[in-house]
Amino acid sequence: MSNDVVDKLVIFLAKRDGIDKLVKTFQYVSKLTHWHMEATNTDVARRAKLWEVASGLSRKAFRTGRFLTGFNALRRSPGPTPLRRSLAVFANGGEMVYFFFDHFLWLARIGVIEKSLARKMSFISAFGEALGYVFFIALDFIAIREGLAEQRRAKKGEKGEEEGEKERLTKIRGDRVMRLMAVAANISDLVIALADIEPNPICNHAATLGISGLVSAWAGWYRNWPS
């Protein structure tokens, strides 16, 4: 492994989101392992399930205070237009509900508060999560559309001088890739949230949850990996 890769890995794992995506990978790989081995090797399946549960609880503990991120995002830059500001309020508001009630879900699952509250906390947290993802997806699609329009104008030479045009186009394309990664992650996490809100055979299937979790985790890896 080259020194450059090692340096980037150190930077990645120094971030809260970097650690979260790594542990999320552990969580959903172990979920898929449990599902795959359940019928053929019960001991491996049992160990995988323990790893999955431990990873999930670890992520919840590590996200303590994360609900303030949405508040800070709204305080700093809610959006340049009334539509973007409105969508940002619902998106970040949903995320704040998700992370705030996720604290109580974690406490219920480890037995600090009544375990009977776990189902209610899970529903409220997942509902806020799903709401937030819907509006985050809408925001990203608006930004992608605006980026495509700007790219077309730049290619026609309608904006400014030629100098710096290439750099601007590169920046637009890079932003579009990052936003598409965000959309992939948010859609995947939306599927996982729907499994908590309204359990059903499709969303709650181990393969669906496992693949969705890994898509979300790996899209997050891409977005947080040092450039």
What would you say this structure looks like, in words?
Keywords: Membrane, Peroxisome, Peroxisome biogenesis, Transmembrane, Transmembrane helix. Belongs to the peroxin-11 family. The chain has 227 residues and is an all-alpha fold. Helix content is 80%, strand content 0%. The protein has one domain (3-224). α2 packs antiparallel against α8 (206-224), α4 runs antiparallel to α5 (82-109) and α6 (118-155) runs antiparallel to α7 (165-197). The radius of gyration is 20 Å and the shape is globular. The two termini are 17 Å apart. The relative contact order is 0.12. The mean pLDDT is 92.
Topology of this protein?
Layout: H1 3-14, H2 16-37, H3 42-62, H4 68-76, H5 82-109, H6 118-155, H7 165-197, H8 206-224
Notable characteristics:
227 residues, mainly alpha, globular
- Strand coverage percent: under 5%
Radius of gyration: 20 Å
The assigned structural class equals: mainly alpha
Quaternary organisation of the protein chains: single chain
How many domains? 1
| Count, helices | 8
Helical residue percent band: over 70%
Give the ordered list of helices and strands.
HHHHHHHH
Question: Strand count, sense and closure of the main sheet?
Answer: none
**Strand segment tally:** 0
> What is the CA–CA distance across the termini?
17 Å
Shape: globular
Low-confidence stretches: none
Would you tell me the overall average pLDDT? 92
Subcellular location: Peroxisome membrane
Function: Involved in peroxisomal proliferation.
GO cellular component, one term: peroxisomal membrane
Transmembrane segments: 121-143
